[in-house]
Amino acid sequence: MFPEERRNKILEIINEQGRCREANLAKQLEVSEVTIRMDLDVLEKQGLLSRTHGGAILNPKTGYERAYQYEESSFPEEKKRIGWRASELVSDGDTIILDVGTTVMEVARQIVRYKDITVVTNALNVATWLENYPEVSVIVTGGTLRATQHSLVNPYADYVLERLYADVAFIGANGIDVNYGVTNVNIPEAEMKIRFLKAARRRILVADSSKIGNVARAKIGKLEDFDLLITDNQADSEQVWLIQEAGLKVEMV
Length: 253
Description:
Elements lengths: L2 H15 L1 E3 H8 L3 H13 L3 E4 L2 E4 L9 H5 L3 H12 L7 E4 L3 H9 L6 E5 L2 H7 L5 E5 L3 E3 L4 E3 L3 H5 L4 E6 L3 E3 L3 E4 L2 H12 L1 E7 L11 E4 L6 E4 L5 H9 L4 E3 L1
Parallel strand pairs: 4-5, 4-9, 5-6, 9-12, 12-14, 14-15
Antiparallel strand pairs: 1-3, 2-3, 7-8, 10-11, 11-13
């Protein structure tokens, strides 16, 4: 196994478990603890994790981009409640933008009860889910496929978005912070989210409570760029109060 392959494997393990120990990694990857320590040092310099005594944890600020299947298993009930509440903001005949992500996917599952809906999305899993519902018309943005999140990013997506105007956009994020605004781990996806904001009359932020207080590497916008944040009822009350004081309405479900 090449060093880069081994480091990617380390990131997969820590991404799934949240933390790891040098001894366990060495045994699992069949290398020495010295080699593991060198790998962890490299990954820390890249900002992908933070070293601890005898191991490492995920970087609490920028973090490592979790693959869709891992993110899907986190806070599933909370995301379902968020998706249902968000879907209540939709009306028959609306044109809706659906962003990438597991929470937005829950919105997609709930809007199928409406009639004459048009959905614009850069998420392939959203598009394939909705293709089975005749009352929903789906427009997929063009672009380059990111398999990690089943997403399409620029180039070419702008061509579609410049010609559309939606009633409401549902946007996901990796970080929501009163000082740093709304952020995302992946830069190309953050660029798409910015375009979605410009193409919609109402902008709804949907994110589980673990995203509140986090700061990721790519800025999507200020808190005031959104009309509403829908999160779950486990959100830190002080953080929620600060966000509301900054001008963003918050609903906890």
